[in-house]
Structure formats: C-alpha cells, structure tokens
Amino acid sequence: MTTYIQITTTTASAAQAAEIAEKLVEQRLVACAQISGPVHSVYRWQGNVEKAEEWKCTAKTRTTLFAAAESAIRQLHTYECPEIIATPIAAGSEAYLEWMESQLVDEA
After folding, report:
1. CA–CA dist 82, 8 (Å, integer)
2. pLDDT digits (tens, 9 = 90+) for 66-108
C-alpha cells in the first residue's frame, strides 16, 4: 500500500510560497499545494524570541518523494533553516488518492 504525506513549509512572502508550490507541482514531486496566510509565527531564533508574518505552503505527495521534494524546497527557500515537515495522511477518499497518484512522477 502506498503511503501519502502532507509537506508543510512557511515562507516570508506569498510570492515565495507560490514559487515553491509551482515548482513542486511542475516537477511532479507533489500532486497539489495550497498556500494560506498570512499566518503569525512566534519562535526562538539565535537566542531571541521573534515574531513574523509568514505564508504556509502545504503540499500532498507520496512518502517516497519526500527527499526529492525537501531538496527542491531547500533550493528555492530563502530561510537559513526552513520548516519542512511531513505529516502522514491517515486516510483519504479513494478517488482523490488515485488522482494524486496520477499526478506524481513515476519512481521506476
């Protein structure tokens, strides 16, 4: 059984989130991606508590494509240490999962 995940990353701008989403879909590393925001983030960075307005990009893919998707995100991302987190998709409609699979690169 194929396992699917959602990959989440946050960016400093809507434009960068869109660029990442488009490249991942173009390369067939993800079936689709949604951009939401702005979100307000609070985090510790280099000893200081920081606040930032960010944009969230959530992409759906196959678990086996995570490394390639992560690499693509890192190449496009401007953050020194970007959030790149994968969460398992526990279940989904059969039709949607079949559509996802048809959009992803083959791993022959």
Report:
1. 10
2. 999 999 999 999 999 999 999 999 999 999 999 999 999 987 4
Q: What is the CATH number of domain 4-97?
A: 3.30.70.120
Question: Cβ(9)–Cβ(84) under 8 Å?
Answer: yes
Cα-to-chain-centroid distance, residue 85:
8
Which structure tokens are listed for 46?
A: 């280099």
Task: Provide the Cα torsion 94, 5, 2, 61; round to 10°.
Answer: 80
The region that residue 37 occupies, defined by phi over 0 for left and psi between -120 and 50 for alpha, beta otherwise, is left
Give me the residue spans of the domains in the chain.
Answer: 4-97
Helices 14-26 and 66-76: angle between axes, nearest 10 degrees: 140
Q: Token pair of 64, please?
A: 């086996």
The token duo for 34 is: 């949604």
Whole-model pTM above 0.85?
yes
